[in-house]
Amino acid sequence: MQNIKLVIVGDGAVGKSCLLISYNTNSFPSEYVPTVFDNYCANVMVDGKPVSIGFWDTAGQEDYDRLRPLSYPQTDIFLLAFSVETEASLQNVKEKWYPEVTHYCPNTPILMVGCKADLRDGDTADRHKRLVTYEDAKAMAKSLGIPYAETSALTQSGLKDCFDVAVRLALNGMEHKSRLKKSKGFSFSNGKKRKAVPIPPLMPPAGKAPWLEIETSTFADNWYRVLEDPRFHDVTFIVEGDRQLNTHKIVLCSASKFFAKVFGVSIGTMTKQQRQMNAIESFSRQLLNSGGVEGIASVYDDHDPKKETPQRQTTVVLSEDIKATTFLRVLEFLYTGVPRLSENMPEDEVTDVIRVARLFKLPQLETICVNVQNDEEFLNPSIGTFLNDETGAMMKQLYLNQPEYADVIFNVQGSKVYGHRVVLSARSDVMGAMFSGRFMEGNDQKTVEINIPDTPVDNFLALLEYLYTDHAPIEDGDGVGILVLADEYCVPRLCNLCELYITKEVDRSCSKNIEKSSIDVIGLLHTAQAYNARQLSNWCLHFISTNYIAFEKREEFSVLTGENRRHVNENRWPPLSYLQEVEEYEKKMAEAGEKCVVM
């Protein structure tokens, strides 16, 4: 079997590692981890011939310009990679990568490879960003006198063709070198034995970056607990004559257009355009109280002016044919996305839930019940996840930072930010304690004002958006500042999301040069440790350790002390032993009179 050494080079974050991983595993990696140096191996068939390919991945950052060429000796084919997303990466193929590989290996075949071609597709294309066209890339390759292949690691488009071409180029190059050797023959006329060329030291693996885990969403569980213990309720349903079920307008109106019409949520809350978009036109009280809305017997308000609260208590009397147990399943659906339907629930009870779901215009609830009847319950969790996202999005649109129904006012940097105690206490343990009654903020009788010191408004709004929706605008805001608030208000999943986003931002900022990057990873490490972001802390320690050469040249390296400094020194990459081997290799090359491939 023919062995081929394939080395891929290119700017950082252009997709080199994804290209190799996708080809070798038939799957796209979900996380970007900057490659230090890594190797893969695969046996393939090309043109009916078995070939063993050794894939050598390299780091594109300038910090590794000295070490990278150690991967080049005995290379059979170079892949010069760029991303169609950035013209600069294509330009660097001409200005940096082609000159570099032809300098060290002037007779080795080269293939230029365009990565992330799927970004040009209609569904994923960013209309505001100019992408490198196929024609521009082809012209660049032609000017360099090398072939061009275009790929997508995400969709695997062009992958096989790309590596088949690479193998053919490598085999042709090896055959050409073999013919040259035979044509020159052997000469022993001078009787001198040629000195063996020193072999470069083998680059040790740097290890993978720590995997960041995202806590499973607690959105549905949080709201189920609220349904079980409905504090701050403003709606009471009367079922079966005297049974009372206490609930919350903010949940009912966000989860159901039918109940939004019952409670008139559009009044004072939504613009005319929003009402048209969401088709919410309130039922009149006359219609509700005259039997004009099926399932509803009557609706009336009980507003006590002594209670300095903006909320009016609303009582809804349901039709006599609606059972309390059935309506409880409806409420579970509205609060959590999926009702608690037991395995041994009688068929007639499931059928009754379907009937009431039709009364209250809840087609997804009907679908969930039908799935249960058809023994297809496995479909229901995904429906629940989708509905919770929809509920969160509507809650943001109707209630986030809106004075309507608000019972909390936060004073943040001189601005008023409106909130709802039921949401805040359900989604944050700290907020829950704040409004539990043991503190002044827990007073049920009035709207409370709370001062939030030393906090940017945008960061606080991002925290509230997460509490209301289970999503936060981290990419558009201050990820570190939001992480600090997530720790302060005990919202661990938001902290995880911030950790993940921040690591991606570090990767992007350091894709070209780590030593000169504007981002302070050591300062980020200290922030992560101060605010209990354990995963981010571990990731930063790994990043600093595996890029030791770059970080030791940065000014802030001096503030890396104590346990952090010890960890980085013990796990530094490349290790001192390897650097000593490199020095020895350079010395031997100099003694042999050879040009050192490391310089």
Describe this structure in words.
With 599 residues, the chain is α/β, with parallel strands linked by helices. The chain has three domains: 2-184, Rossmann fold; 219-399, Potassium Channel Kv1.1, Chain A; 405-491, Potassium Channel Kv1.1, Chain A (2-Layer Sandwich). The protein is 44% helix and 14% strand. It is built from 23 helices and 13 strands. The protein has helices at 16-25, 87-104, 134-144, 159-184, 219-228, 249-255, 257-263, 272-278, 285-289, 324-336, 347-359, 363-373, 380-399, 421-427, 429-434, 457-469, 479-488, 492-509, 521-530, 534-546, 548-551, 562-570, 576-591; strands at 2-10, 37-46, 49-58, 77-83, 110-115, 148-150, 235-239, 243-247, 296-302, 313-318, 408-412, 415-419, 448-452. The strands form three sheets. The protein has a six-stranded mixed sheet, sandwiched between helices. Strands 8-7-10-9 form a four-stranded mixed sheet. Strands 12-11-13 form a three-stranded mixed sheet. A hairpin with a 2-residue loop joins β2 and β3. α6 (249-255) crosses α7, α6 packs across α13 (380-399) and α20 packs across α22 (562-570). The two termini are 34 Å apart.
List the helices and strands and how they pair.
Elements: E1 2-10, H1 16-25, E2 37-46, E3 49-58, E4 77-83, H2 87-104, E5 110-115, H3 134-144, E6 148-150, H4 159-184, H5 219-228, E7 235-239, E8 243-247, H6 249-255, H7 257-263, H8 272-278, H9 285-289, E9 296-302, E10 313-318, H10 324-336, H11 347-359, H12 363-373, H13 380-399, E11 408-412, E12 415-419, H14 421-427, H15 429-434, E13 448-452, H16 457-469, H17 479-488, H18 492-509, H19 521-530, H20 534-546, H21 548-551, H22 562-570, H23 576-591
Parallel strand pairs: 1-3, 1-4, 4-5, 5-6, 7-10, 11-13
Antiparallel strand pairs: 2-3, 7-8, 9-10, 11-12
